[in-house]
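For the sake of transparency, this paper describes our internal protein records without simplification. The remainder of this section carries one protein's record, kept here as part of the documentation:
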Amino acid sequence: MQIFQLEGIGKSFGGVRALRWRDEDRVEISTGEVWAFAGENGAGKSTLAALLAGVTSPNRGTMRYEGEPYAPASVNEAKARGVQIVFQEPALIPSLTVAENLFIGREAEFSRFGLRLGRRMVAQARKLLAGVCPHVDPQAVARDLSLEDQKLVETARAVSTNPRCLIFDETTATMSSRNTALLLDLIARLKPTTAIIMVTHRTEEIFAVTDKLLILKDGAFVAVRDTAATTPDELSNLMVGRDVDLHIRSAGAGNAEEEPLLEIEGLTVAGGVRDFSLRLAKGSIVGIGGLAGAGQERILSGIYGTQPSSSGRVVVKGKVYDGRRPRRSIGLGLMYAPKNRDREGLILQQKVRSNIVLSVLDRLSAGGLASKAQETSLSSQLASRLNVKCRSVEENCQNLSGGNRQKVVLAKLLATEGDIFLLDNPTRGIDIGARAEIYQLLNDLTARGAGVILVSDELQELLQMSDTIMLIRDGRVAKTFDRKDKPQESDLIRHMI
């Protein structure tokens, strides 16, 4: 059964044309189909998903739902019609339990004479979670869940309404391979009775579960393709409009004979790694991987100083570094890009300029007053260097696509002129073109003598970009590979599980 029919869609935000289809551009989405909205960051994928979900409305074009005109005034109105969306960033209420989040707006179903039937709610939540994420405790407080488990809970909440159309906006961008597999299995089970739309940059997922591709570029309609009749290279070329070079590193980067930029001995971080040691040479990239919860996500914050360590020794450029704090780390040239860029890496309501210069305001100030001219000059140079797509550095970061937000995070690090970069999943949720640009940046930085510690959930990224790969299992280093060992994905997986 046909669910959506879209024609000639146009959407502008101020002077920015986020979608600019021609009148003849048309898409029909039906029950029993899994679609991928594909394109670079800024192509309009999430904007189109937002139109379908009632987040915003088109300026031109027509949308029909089950044959009838469709113009929801809100997300709730779209939900009432059977359209659910799981957004890219978490939307749970942190202080509520998982069960309470699952049944927001449906509390009356679990009340009698004004009293909440808590046990009944928990029991119903457990049944619902069993089909999506059975490992999540319905009585856990939402803020205590990992980012990826929060996304699975949101998915369970959406599924509980038996939607006619279910939209996933970069849902797997924060997920480990285990939880991604849970989600893809759910999609396969829902497919016969549901129209499913995925906004994702993960090519392997697109070719694993989708039937149809809608390809967008700079807001324009490029093509509709059958997934089975399209190759990954063809998809990349349609998305980017050019051949993409992912800048695979060559062997021999780094000089083990020189004094290392960073040495770690026996680092232990509460709730994370135990007895972790590492040596980061100039010009090298050390990649760190592991299953979700294995502890690798705490390593970088423990080094940088946002997470306290109970033991261990950190040496930066030959000097012992005790009393680690972010401000002191920045002063030593030690820079950190967190996994959750929107919550921890940026102030979304602030301008691109303000975010880029945030760590170097002292350098750009005189007498306690910041120089806007210097801020504009430095931020414009770095935004241009990283090819940040924005109208100007005066644009707010919340208006940028995910990939361009990530570039602003990296520009903020470059502004400090540091030489040790601690990067937690720097290509999470970004398209292949932006990914190639970030890989080139890492190659350029290490060519100039900088060192990078790269934590990544993507095995191919670790294999492509690391000179050394360290695998974490149950909080300890399970195996270390050198590039000359030529490890394969199967080798990494074997030591992670």
